[in-house]
Design a protein that fits this description.
The complex is a heterodimer of chains A (294) and B (310).
Chain A: H1 2-36, H2 40-46, H3 58-65, H4 68-100, H5 107-119, H6 124-134, H7 142-145, H8 152-162, H9 167-175, H10 180-191, H11 193-208, H12 212-217, H13 226-235, H14 237-248, H15 257-291
Helix pairs in contact in A: 1-15, 3-15, 4-8, 4-11, 5-8, 8-11, 9-10, 11-15, 13-14, 13-15
Chain B: H1 2-41, H2 64-71, H3 75-106, H4 110-121, H5 128-139, H6 145-152, H7 167-192, H8 196-204, H9 209-234, H10 241-246, H11 255-258, H12 261-271, H13 275-303
Helix pairs in contact in B: 2-13, 3-7, 3-9, 4-7, 7-9, 9-13, 12-13
Classes of the chains: A mainly alpha (294), B mainly alpha (310).
Chain lengths: 294, 310
C-alpha cells in the first residue's frame, strides 16, 4: 500500500521534471516558428514573443514568391546530401565488410589505420591546404561531399553490425562459388538493411546540417548550402534585403525581414525534424552502438 | 570431406584478397587523402607556407610560428577558454543526462517514454546555425524575449551581445541543451540492461527509491560513465566549433571569453590568412589532443581494465 503510493509519487515527480525539461528543449524551436508566423510590424514594435498575438503568413508568402535564393540553396543541399549519403554509405559499407572478413590479409592493418584516425588528426590547416591547394576544390561542390564520405566511427559501427551475421551463411555461399563481391551485394547488404538505414541516416544528418565545409571552401553565392545561407542572413541582416530585393525588384522597405528570416530557418530545419520521429529507432540504435568501443 | 573443403577455401583466398582489396580501396583512399595526408601536412607548422608553394617546397623556419602564437596575448585566454568551457560542458551535460535517464527509468508508460525521448532529442538534430537563430530570439537587445521580460519585471535590460559575464554560462548551458538527448539515450540504454530482480530484491528488503538508485542504478552506470567521460576529456582541446562561432555572433566584445582554439585557428587562417600562426595553433592542438587521449586511456585502464578504450 505505502509502496504503491511511494512509487506513484516518484513517478509523478519524474513526469513533472521530464515535462519541464522537454518544454525547455522545444521552446527555443517553437519560438522560431512563432516569430515566423508573426506580424512584422508588431515584431518591430513589441519585440519577439513566445505566443503570437495573431497568425500572419506574410513571411512565408513572401519567401515563396521570391524563392530563388532559397531554392538555389535547397538544390545545393539536396544534391550534396543525396550524393554524399549514397556514395558514403557504399564506401563505408564496402570497407566495413572487408574488415569483417577474417581471411583478408590487410584486415589488421586497415582496421588499425581506420581506428587511428579517431585518435589523431591533422586538423584544420593541413586539411584546408589539401582541399584548396592540392585537390583544387575551392568553390566546388566536391569540396562539400568528399571530406565527409568516410567516417571512422561509421565504419566501426557497421563492422560490428556485419560481424553479427552468422559466418555460416557466407561460407555456404562461398562453397557454391560466390565471390566476395557477390556475398557482399547479394547476402550481407540485403541482410543488413536496418543497420544500413541507421548509418545512412547518420550520414544524411551530417550532410544536411553541415555549414563547416561551406564556411571553409565556398565563396560563390550560387553554391551556398542552406545552413550557410542562413548564417549569412543572420550575420548580415541586409543580406536578405539586398539579395531578395535585387532579384525581384520590390520595394526593400516592405520586406518582412525579421519574420522572413525565422521562416527561412523553419524551412531549413523542418525536413530533419519531420523525419526524426519516424526514424528514431534507427538513430537510437546507431548512436548507442557508436558509444561503445569499436 | 571437411578437409577437402578447407583446402578449397584456402585456395580461394588469393582471388578473395584481390576482391576485398578492391572493395576496401575507395574507403581507404579517402581515409588516406583526408586523414593521413593532413597528418603529414602538420609539418607546415615548422615552415613558412604560402599558397604558391607546396608543403615540401616551402622553407623551414624552425619554431618561429610557435613563438608568435606563444607570445601573443591571445594565447592564455584561448587555452583557458577551451579547457574551462569544455570541462564545464562535460560536467553539466553528464550530470543532466544521468538525472534525465534515471527519471526516464521511473516512467512505465511506453508512449510517455517515447514522447520524452524524442523531445529531448530534438535539439541534437538542429545545426548550430539554427540554434543561433533561437538564441538570438531570446538574447537580441531590442527585440529579445529575455529583455522584454526584464523590462516587464522592472529591471534594466541587458546587452547580451556585449556583456561578457553571462557567456560562459550561456555556452555551457547551450552545449548541455543540445547534447542532453544523446547522453540521456546512452545512460537510459544501460539502465535498461540492469536485471529488474536487483530492484525487486532491494524493494522487498525495504530500501527506499533513493537508496536503490544510489546503490544499484548508479554503480551500473559507472563503466559507461567512465568511457564517455574519458572520450570527452580526450577531446578537451577540440571544441564544438559551431557553438562558439555562431552563438556569440562573432561579437568582438565577447571574444575574450568565447574564443577557443578552433575559432582562433579558423580566424587566423581564413580572416587574417596567416598560415604560420594558425598552423602552430593547429599543431599544438593535434599533439596535445593525442597526449591527452593516451593519458585518459591509461587512467581508464588503471581504474577498470574493461573501461579502457584501446
Amino acid at each position: 500500500m505505502t509502496r504503491g503510493f511511494q512509487q506513484r509519487r516518484t513517478s509523478s515527480i519524474a513526469n513533472a521534471t521530464l515535462m519541464c525539461v522537454c518544454l525547455l528543449c522545444i521552446i527555443p524551436l517553437l519560438t522560431i516558428v512563432t516569430i515566423s508566423f508573426s506580424n512584422e510590424k508588431m515584431l518591430v514594435s513589441d519585440g519577439y514573443r513566445l505566443i503570437p498575438q495573431q497568425l500572419d503568413f506574410t513571411a512565408y508568402k513572401y519567401i515563396l514568391r521570391n524563392a530563388s535564393v532559397m531554392i538555389q540553396a535547397y538544390k545545393v543541399t539536396i544534391f550534396v546530401t543525396a550524393c554524399g549519403t549514397i556514395a558514403g554509405l557504399l564506401a563505408t559499407s564496402l570497407l566495413a565488410y572487408a574488415l569483417t572478413r577474417s581471411r583478408f590479409i590487410f584486415r589488421k592493418l586497415f582496421s588499425f589505420l581506420v581506428i587511428f584516425t579517431l585518435l589523431f588528426n591533422g586538423g584544420l590547416v593541413p586539411s584546408y591546404i589539401l582541399v584548396v591547394n592540392y585537390l583544387h576544390l575551392k568553390d566546388s561542390l566536391l569540396a562539400l561531399i568528399l571530406p565527409y564520405l568516410i567516417g571512422a566511427m561509421n565504419v566501426l559501427i557497421l563492422r560490428t553490425f556485419f560481424s553479427q551475421i552468422p559466418e555460416a551463411i557466407s561460407e555456404s555461399a562461398k562453397i557454391d562459388g560466390a565471390s566476395e563481391w557477390t556475398i557482399y551485394w547479394r547476402i550481407v547488404f540485403p541482410l543488413s538493411k536496418p543497420a544500413l538505414a541507421t548509418i545512412g541516416l547518420l550520414i544524411l544528418l551530417v550532410y544536411w546540417n553541415d555549414w563547416w565545409l561551406s564556411l571553409l571552401y565556398i565563396d560563390s553565392p550560387k553554391l551556398l548550402p542552406l545552413q550557410l545561407m542562413l548564417h549569412r542572413m543572420m550575420a548580415n541582416i541586409e543580406f536578405l534585403r539586398s539579395n531578395i530585393g535585387n532579384l525581384s525588384g520590390v520595394n526593400i522597405s516592405q520586406i518582412p525581414s525579421e519574420s522572413a528570416r525565422m521562416a527561412m530557418c523553419v524551412l531549413a530545419a523542418a525536413p530533419m525534424l519531420i523525419i526524426l520521429p519516424f526514424f528514431q529507432k534507427y538513430f537510437v540504435r546507431g548512436l548507442t552502438l557508436g558509444s561503445v568501443k569499436g | 570431406m571437411a578437409r577437402e573443403l578447407m583446402v578449397r577455401m584456402k585456395k580461394l583466398t588469393g582471388i578473395d584478397n584481390i576482391y576485398l582489396s578492391f572493395m576496401s580501396a575507395p574507403g581507404m583512399l579517402l581515409i588516406f587523402v583526408f586523414s593521413y595526408f593532413p597528418m603529414y601536412g602538420l609539418i607546415v607548422a615548422f615552415k613558412k607556407y604560402s599558397f604558391d608553394t607546396s608543403i615540401l617546397g616551402s622553407p623551414w623556419v624552425g619554431f618561429s610560428n610557435f613563438e608568435f602564437f606563444l607570445s601573443s596575448e591571445s594565447f592564455w585566454p584561448v587555452i583557458r577558454n577551451t579547457l574551462l568551457l569544455n570541462l564545464g560542458s562535460i560536467v553539466v551535460t553528464t550530470f543532466a543526462s544521468i538525472v534525465m535517464a534515471l527519471l526516464l527509468y521511473e516512467i512505465t508508460r511506453p508512449l510517455l517514454i517515447k514522447i520524452y525521448q524524442t523531445t529531448l532529442f530534438f535539439p541534437f538534430f538542429l545545426s548550430w546555425v539554427v540554434v543561433s537563430f533561437a538564441s538570438y530570439a531570446f538574447l537580441s537587445e531590442n527585440l529579445g524575449i529575455f529583455n522584454s521580460w526584464l523590462e516587464r519585471l522592472g529591471f534594466d535590460t541587458i546587452g547580451w551581445y556585449s556583456e561578457r559575464q553571462y557567456w560562459p554560462a550561456i555556452l555551457i548551458l547551450a552545449s548541455a541543451w543540445k547534447n542532453i538527448g544523446y547522453g540521456t539515450l546512452i545512460y537510459y540504454a544501460s539502465l535498461l540492461s540492469i536485471d529488474k530482480e536487483y530492484f525487486e530484491a532491494a524493494e522487498i528488503d525495504g530500501a527506499s527509491r533513493m537508496r536503490t538508485v544510489w546503490f544499484i542504478a548508479l554503480p551500473f552506470l559507472y563503466p559507461i560513465l567512465t568511457i564517455l567521460t574519458l572520450l570527452s576529456v580526450g577531446r578537451i582541446f577540440y571544441s564544438d566549433f559551431g557553438l562558439f562561432y555562431f552563438l556569440p555572433m562573432q561579437s568582438g566584445m565577447l571574444m575574450p571569453v568565447t574564443d577557443v582554439i578552433d575559432t582562433y585557428a579558423y580566424r587566423t587562417l581564413r580572416i587574417l590568412g596567416d598560415f604560420g600562426m594558425s598552423s602552430a595553433v593547429n599543431f599544438i592542438q593535434s599533439v596535445l589532443g593525442l597526449v591527452v587521449i593516451f593519458a585518459a586511456n591509461h587512467a581508464a585502464r588503471k581504474i577498470d581494465q574493461d573501461s579502457a578504450l584501446f
